[in-house]
Amino acid sequence: MEALDIRYPIHLALIIGAAALFTGCGGPQPPIGSPGALPQASTRVRTDSTHYNVVYSFSGGSDGANPVAGVIDVGGTLYGTTAAGGAYYCGLGGYHGCGTVYSVTPSGTENVLHNFGAGSDGANPVAGLIDVGGTLYGTTSAGGSYGCYGSYYFNCGTVFSLTPSGSEQVLHDFSGYSNDGAHPDAGLIDVKGTLYGTTVVGGQGECYYSGFACGTVFSITTTGTERVLHGFTGRPDGALPYTDLIDVKGTLYGTTESGGKHGYGTVFRIAAGGAEKVLHNFGAGSDGRNPYAGLIELQGALYGTTIGGGAYSCGSRVGCGTVFRITPGGTEEVLHSFGHGADGTHPYASLIELNGKLYGTTLSGGAYSCSSNIACGTVFSVTPGGKEKVLHSFGGSNDGARPHAGLTVVDDTLYGTTAIGGHGYGTVFSLKP
Question: For residue 198, is it within any domain?
Answer without folding.
Answer: yes
